[in-house]
Design goal:
The complex is a heterodimer of chains A (about 110) and B (about 120). Chain A is mainly β and about 110 residues long. Helix content of chain A is about 0%, strand content about 55%. Chain A has no helices and 11 strands. The N and C termini of chain A lie far apart (about 40 Å). With about 120 residues, chain B is mostly beta strands. In chain B, the strands form 2 sheets. In chain B, strands 2, 4, 5, 6, 9, 10 and 11 form a 7-stranded mixed sheet that branches. Chain B has a 4-stranded antiparallel sheet with strand order 1-3-8-7, with no helix packed on it. The chains are: A mainly beta (about 110), B mainly beta (about 120). At the A-B interface, strand 4, strand 5 and strand 9 of A face strand 10 of B.
Chain lengths: ~110, ~120
């Protein structure tokens, strides 16, 4: 089955710097890669997702890149702000005939210092 | 309305109690999920309902019993829980089933403590 590894487990940056979180997946059949942000006391919220037919996707200060050959994808946050501080989870999902279940990485705790 | 609402937010129960967690969404989503999340860990899938039918049970112990009364509501009935069942229980919904790779919308969860 699918396995997703996420690095780093903790990341501390200064406000205004960029932050990068990386994930690798094992199942080449995976074709959907969402990123979730979880603030303290809240449930995970989808911030961006990418499908396997796309190499990069941007939404304002957030971007995700996907390298299908290497089986890794990354989250890039530019001009970080204190409100970006949260735990970020990457995930991968195989196609229907492979079960289609979302598999999460272990999470990255991002701290943005003012 | 893009919210998934969970009640209660906090629950403390003894090992002999029976309690229920409730989840509601009004986005017209046809798939609803229960996840369990331990502190500093990712969510773990427990159950999936698709079109009000149980489609995935991740070998969850029978002391957890899900119920989907209609397409907007999802319950999780708890009985004879163990202290290790203490966790954040998250409900989620998506437009179609898990195989459709649709976006998941999560509620804020119920923080459960079993004494």
């Amino acid at each position: 089955g699918e396995n997703v590894e996420q690095h780093p487990s903790t990341l501390s940056v200064q406000e205004g710097d960029s932050a990068v979180i990386k994930c690798t997946y094992s199942d080449s059949a995976s074709n959907y890669f969402p990123w979730y942000k979880q603030e303290l006391g809240k449930g995970p919220q989808l911030i961006i997702d990418i499908r396997s037919n796309v190499g990069e996707k941007k939404d304002q200060r957030i971007a995700v890149t996907l390298n299908k050959t290497a089986k890794h994808f990354s989250l890039h946050i530019t001009e970080t702000q204190p409100e970006d501080s949260a735990v970020y989870f990457c995930a991968a999902s195989p196609s229907y005939n492979q079960g289609g279940k979302l598999i999460f990485g272990q999470g990255t705790e991002l701290s943005v210092k003012p | 309305d893009t919210e998934v609402t969970q009640t209660p937010k906090h629950l403390v129960m003894g090992m002999t109690n029976k309690k229920s967690l409730k989840c509601e969404q009004h986005m017209g989503h046809r798939a609803m999920y229960w996840y369990k999340q331990k502190a500093k860990k990712p969510p773990e899938l427990m159950f999936v309902y698709s079109y009000e039918k149980l489609s995935i049970n991740e070998s969850v112990p029978s002391r957890f019993s899900p119920e989907c009364p209609n397409s907007s509501l999802l319950n999780l009935h708890l009985h004879a829980l163990q202290p290790e069942d203490s966790a954040l229980y998250l409900c989620a919904s998506s437009q179609a089933g898990p195989w459709a790779n649709e976006k998941l919308f999560f509620g804020s969860g119920t923080q459960l403590s079993v004494l």
